Amino acid sequence: MRIGLTGGASTPDKIIGQARRAEADGFHSLWFASVVQGDSLVAMALAGRETRAIELGTAVLQTYPCHPLLQAQRVAATVAAMGRPGLTVGLGPSHEANISGVYGLSYEHAGRNTEEYLQILTGLLRGEAVEVTGQDWATHAAAGTVRASHPVPVLLAALSPCMLRIAGEHAAGAILWMAPAAAIEKHAYPRISAAGRPAPRLVAGLLIVVHDDEQEARSAVAASSVMYASSPAYQRILAIGGADSPADAAIVGGEAAVTAQLEALLNAGPTDIHAHIVPAGDDNVRVAGRWTYLYRAIDQFGQVIDVLASEKRDLAAARRFFAKAPAHGRRPVAVTTDRAAAYPRVLDEQLPAAYHVDARYANNKVEADRGRLKARLRPMRGLKRLRSAQVIGSGHAFGQNLRRGHYELGVDAEPHHRLTAAFTELAQAI
User: Fold this and answer.
1) Residue 383 gets which letter from DSSP?
2) What are phi and psi of 69, to 5 degrees?
3) 230 and 116, same structural domain?
């Protein structure tokens, strides 16, 4: 199973750090959109120099705004700057709304335009002489005009029958974005394989959410995929796959469920998975570039009684949390949680007398309370260690409890002055 991630960050240094972490974690590839840092090839050249083997691919470069000869020279310069193999170029004609609406170019004959472009680009990257006078593109270049220091596979963004045929005949494979497993199995794979060339590469890109509350996970996908939901090209491929929206096509669930869905996706024909991770819920905190989970327990009076930062949201973490949280006071008669699969089993083990409530929206009080901590963390430059998340989460909870008057400190002050008054009293007592 070859799994890659979406690449990109707000600064070149962060992109380099992301690539290093992805390689260290065993991911096979990072896929960069054309808009990353204004020019994804620059970011990839930097990341490639600081990594050893992870594949760096574009998903995708737009064909219309850049002549294929210039594009080939840019690609050759990028792989030279990387100083190693591992660059893969995914490209495509983009969408009419972008090409006509933004660039003011004609989007007629997109299939013909792309086929001519691919023929020129792939020949140039192989170092061949290219003599093409097409209806949309022309190039007259001697052999060796472009000298790529390492082989550069070219993949085509392909969803329609026309583009899949072109990918099968002229590219090393295809990039499939937003295509459900059923669409790959009955639509994409047969069409790209019809060219009869050596087994084509198929990179299947989908939104993925590891979260136990499926409804919340799909809501997070819907909120982050409005652009895809309104695109005719994506609407067609989703319909072929039996999905009504990107949220329906997304891979969501707990770790075991997501693993099973990824395996089912690979069985449909792709050689690679491009995982675009979508965080869900207010319970996620980014630590060293990774999403971690923050458990918080709040009593009926709004007092935060415990906090636990955990790298995983699984049975073991839930056991640790519920073994500790009730020790802060009387054992609860009712416990309200979200619908994480681990909770019923853990509560039966550790709080068998407590009534478990997991109805929809019942946990909103906790979710809203956690939002205050998220608002504090958002402007920060990120946390480096899990212990930092634990300390900050616990400290923030202590401050909240002081403001809300749960301790015998600063109780005579106005709520917005209570924290200052409480620490003054503590200093005087010490």
Assistant:
1) B
2) -70, -45
3) yes
Question: Within a 10 A sphere around the Cβ of 292, how many other Cβ atoms?
Answer: 19
pLDDT band, very low/low/confident/very high, at 159 (cuts 50, 70, 90): very high
107 HSE (CA, 13 A, CB side): 14
C-alpha 304, offset from chain centre: 31
Across the range 136-141, mean pLDDT stands at 98
The dihedral formed by the CA atoms of 302, 303, 309 and 314, expressed in degrees to the nearest 10: -60
Q: Where are the alpha helices (DSSP H) in 268-314?
A: none
Task: State which of 282, 313, 335 marks the end of a domain.
Answer: 282
**What pLDDT sits at residue 364?**
57
Looking at the structure, tell me whether residues 20 and 50 fall in a common domain. Answer: yes
Q: What Å distances lie between residue 147 and 73, 144, 154, CA to CA?
A: 8, 6, 15
pTM, full prediction: 0.74
* Enclosing domain of residue 44: 2-282
How far is it, in rounded angstroms, from Cα 246 to Cα 222? 7
* Total number of domains in the chain: 2
176 DSSP β-pair partners: 204
- Provide the b/e sequence for 198-229 (b: ≥16 CB within 10 Å): eebbbbbbbbbbbbbbbebbbebbbebbeebb
Taking residues 77-85, report their average pLDDT.
Answer: 98
CATH number of the domain where residue 332 is located: 3.30.420.10
Instruction: Say yes or no: 322 and 231 in one domain.
Output: no
Residues in contact with 104: Cβ distance below 8 Å, sequence separation at least 6, in sequence order: none
Per-residue confidence (pLDDT) for residue 329, from 0 to 100: 66
Q: What is the DSSP string of 31-71?
A: EE-TTGGG-HHHHHHHHHHT-SS-EEEES-EESTTS-HHHH
Residue 362 predicted with pLDDT over 70: no
| 169, 306: one domain | no
Q: Is the peptide bond before 36 cis (omega within 30 degrees of 0)?
A: no
Identify which has the larger pLDDT, 337 or 81: 81
- At 286-317, the pLDDT tens digits run 787 777 888 888 887 778 888 999 888 888 98
Among 11-25, 36-50, 213-227, whose mean pLDDT is lowest? 213-227
The pairing of beta strand 290-298 with beta strand 304-310: antiparallel
